[in-house]
Design brief:
Length: 154
């Protein structure tokens, strides 16, 4: 197994208020309905266990479960990182959402990094990490579409 890492940043302005966007992004029951491949989240305070269905990467399907420590700085920042009590997880995700009220709506930005041990050799780093970015981009597009629909903007 080799550890591969990919990251993605994006931002958009939506018409909904920061309060409405915050409510969606902090709802562990709603997020799986908005996020492709996310089966469920088991939330226990600031400890969230994410259950991901099989994600296609270069002809293989990889599923995982990982535990995150969530940091909620209402109303403008949500940060997440691998839980310190689970340092050896196959999948590790870290990132931040930033929400900023703007012109009656919300500027929403995300910075996310996914690191995962996969059954590919190190020499496959470039195509594997490229595939990871492609999957993350597709997930981001679908998440955005679903979030806008949930917020009544589509």
């Amino acid at each position: 197994m080799t550890r591969f890492t990919a990251s993605k940043q994006s931002a958009a302005t939506v018409r909904s208020s920061p309060k409405e966007v915050w409510a969606a992004l902090t709802d562990p029951e709603l997020l799986p309905r908005l996020t492709p491949y996310l089966q469920r989240i088991d939330a226990d305070g600031d400890t969230w266990t994410w259950h991901v269905t099989r994600v296609p990467v270069l002809g293989k399907s990889i599923g995982s479960t990982f535990v995150e420590r969530m940091h909620f700085d209402e109303p403008d920042r949500i940060a997440y990182a691998p839980h310190p009590d689970h340092p050896d997880q196959q999948t590790q995700v870290r990132g931040e959402y930033h929400l900023e009220g703007r012109d009656g709506g919300t500027r929403l930005s995300i910075d996310i990094e996914v690191s995962v041990e996969l059954p590919f050799p190190r020499v496959a780093r470039v195509p594997v990490e490229g595939a990871m970015v492609t999957v993350m981009s597709g997930m981001g597009v679908a998440f955005s579409r679903n979030l806008l629909r949930h917020l009544g903007e589509r």
